[in-house]
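Weekly modeling sync, notes
Attendees: S.R. (lead), two postdocs, one rotation student

Agenda item 3: backlog of single-chain predictions. S.R. asked that every request posted to the team notebook include the full sequence so nobody has to chase files. The rotation student volunteered to paste the first one in as an example of the format we agreed on. Action items at the bottom.

Example entry:
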Amino acid sequence: MKVVQTPKISDKVNCLKTGDEVLLSGVIYTARDQAHKRLCQFIKNNKKLSFDLKGATIYYCGPTQTPKGKVIGSCGPTTSKRMDAFAPILLKSGLKAMIGKGGRSKEVVAAIKKYKAVYLLAPAGCGALLSKFVLKKELVVFEDLGPEAIYRLEVKDFPVIVGIDAKGRSVFRKF
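Predicted structure, as returned to the notebook:
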């Protein structure tokens, strides 16, 4: 088990190998389809983002409503392929890690390799369990998107597996 602190994941990206089990601690940002589309529009139009993408980790997640007395509602991963059209632009802008579920396109794998990033897998169907690793949640931008807004999460020992490493090796490749 490897322990990785964000946003220092940039320093560890080359040490992470496909299949490694990782406990992630620090700051990650949630973002889904519509938030990705807007982020890319901001980048294309040279608009300032509400958070720094350099070295950042984005979790493909839209948390459910927060129950009374909890930090966050259920926060499981969503299918990553829906973000494939946007991932290369965000990686070029400095994104270092993405967390989701499922395989990625050849273009995303090439961008991960080119920009020395990593794709991490969170256990699907475990949103309620994953919420226990979130210490703090705060809205960053796109409040009108509701649960699909971008949230800044502080996590401790958030369990993930390296799905695609910085060399482009993937757990989804057929052997």
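Discussion: group reviewed the output briefly. The domain at 2-164 is CATH 3.20.130.10 (fumarase).
Action items: rotation student to repeat for the remaining queue; S.R. to check formatting next week.
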